[in-house]
Each structure stands twice: as structure tokens, then as C-alpha cells.
Write a structure and sequence with these properties.
Blueprint: E1 5-8, E2 11-14, E3 20-23, E4 32-35, H1 38-50, H2 78-95, H3 105-118, H4 123-130, H5 135-142, H6 147-159
Antiparallel strand pairs: 1-4, 2-3
Helix pairs in contact: 4-5
Length: 162
């Protein structure tokens, strides 16, 4: 919190036999600091303030202090979050006529990347935040732009405003 950043240098995994372990990110570019906005910082502080105290703090490969625990007081892994998203989308689609598509935590990475590109974030900085070693991955895989995204820019160039 003091530096206003999140250090990304490890990832929690769970094997098919339910064994938890810690890995380094896939590439060296995956090891990075990600700046926290004020809203993100406030959200993390809220999570920390409301985090239940487990009977025994889980430790995985020497790492403890996981923010989110499951009903068995073990750290939540990607599959937990995928199921939560699936449940939320299913519930929404039962209630509302305009259905949501499949949404996963990984889709949120694509959405973040696309939104930052739309806002004009410097491509090298966006590549760094995403943890990609190659800018081609950032823009060819994670950034999804279309006609409406470029229309205003093109009209701005025409009028000299951009």
C-alpha cells in the first residue's frame, strides 16, 4: 500500500489431485509491479478488513496471507473464480432478457487490455502491465478493437482535432 503497487511474482496453482503449489509467472516479463488506482487500493483494504480469520492460516510452499479462502479455509484458485463468474452469468440470464455471454476471469484481462488501449495507453506500458514479453501478444491477442473504436479518432484527424 505504501508504494501504491501490486507485486506480481508468483501464482497459486492446484493440481488435479487437489495439491496446492506456488509457481513463478510463465515468463520473466510476468514478474512485475502493477500500479494500484485509489479504487483498487480501497477495495483491497476492504477485503483485508472483512477477511475472516481462519482457524489455521494456510501455508503453500512457504507463502501465507492469502486474501480469499474457500469454505475449507484453503486459498481460492482460478477454478473457484471461474465458477463464481459462471454462477453470476447464469443467474443474470435467468432474470434478464438480454443475456450475458460466457465471462471468465481471463476475459476480464482481455477487457482491461482493450479498455486501456481505447483510452490511449502507451503500448509499451500496456505490455508491461499485462506481463507480456512480446507486444504482439498484447495487441494481437488481448486487445479487441472495432469500427466504433477507431471512428472518432479518424474523424478527429480529419478535422485536425486529434
Amino acid at each position: 500500500f505504501k508504494e501504491g503497487s501490486i507485486r506480481v511474482n508468483k501464482q497459486l496453482q492446484r493440481s488435479s489431485d487437489m495439491r496446492y503449489y506456488i509457481e513463478r509467472p510463465k515468463t520473466e516479463s510476468g514478474v512485475r509491479y502493477v500500479p494500484m488506482t485509489n479504487a483498487v487500493s480501497a477495495s483491497f483494504k476492504r477485503v483485508l478488513a472483512n477477511r475472516p480469520r481462519p482457524a489455521c492460516e494456510p501455508v503453500v510452499d512457504g507463502v501465507s496471507g492469502f486474501l480469499f479462502l474457500d469454505k475449507n479455509e484453503m486459498p481460492r484458485v482460478a477454478l473457484h473464480w471461474q465458477k463464481y463468474f459462471q454462477y453470476a452469468v447464469t443467474k443474470h440470464n435467468r432474470i434478464y432478457k438480454e443475456e450475458l455471454p460466457k465471462i471468465t476471469p481471463h476475459v476480464c484481462r482481455h477487457t482491461f487490455c482493450s479498455k486501456m488501449a481505447r483510452k490511449g495507453m502507451n503500448p509499451a506500458k500496456l505490455k508491461y502491465i499485462m506481463g507480456h514479453s512480446d507486444i504482439e501478444v498484447t495487441f494481437n491477442t488481448y486487445t479487441h478493437l472495432g469500427f466504433e473504436d477507431v471512428k472518432a479518432d479518424m474523424l478527429g484527424y480529419e478535422s485536425g482535432a486529434a
